[in-house]
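Reopening: Xanthine phosphoribosyltransferase still failing for me.
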Amino acid sequence: MEILKKRILEEGIVVSDQVLKLDGLLNHQVDPELTMEMGREFARLFADQGVTRVVTVESSGIAVAFATACELKVPLVFARRKKTLLADPDALCERVPSFTKGIVTDIMISRQFISPEDKILFIDDIIANGDAARGLIKIIHRSGAELVGLGVVVEKCFEAGARTIREQGVRLESLVKIKSLAGGRIEFEQ
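Support: Ran it again with your exact input. Result attached.
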């Protein structure tokens, strides 16, 4: 998506050779028009998969996952990161480290919202090392649902996450692939 690349170049902040801050696009502020365009693209890429639910991990993936679910006309389910007093005691849970937060958290989805009959499209904002993605994939598999694919807005190709997910046989589609952040410069893969 050329418009997304352009916006990343204009608004992305390279914090280090490993970290790209996208607060103005994905992680703090959301551009509704760009987000809906990303949702349309994911819906187009996975249109032939019979998706019955879109899932994501709280919270940065919610906007793009919502746009995708809207286009596909299916429900959106997001994995929660915090247990509440009202949490389903029988929820599907997985413990995952968070690179950007520097902590380990539990992610969970209530069995009420995911079933063996579902064909799941997993949408996320960024894939780097892939810990959260692998955790949610484990939850999807334990539910008995079929994972039809993973769509990510930004793939950091210099990290192992996307490669390890693809090695599991999961179809992974990225809207933008970043080759390098070295020297404070954003370099895209073609």
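The CA atoms of residues 11 and 24 lie 7 Å apart. If you still see a failure, please send the error message rather than a screenshot.
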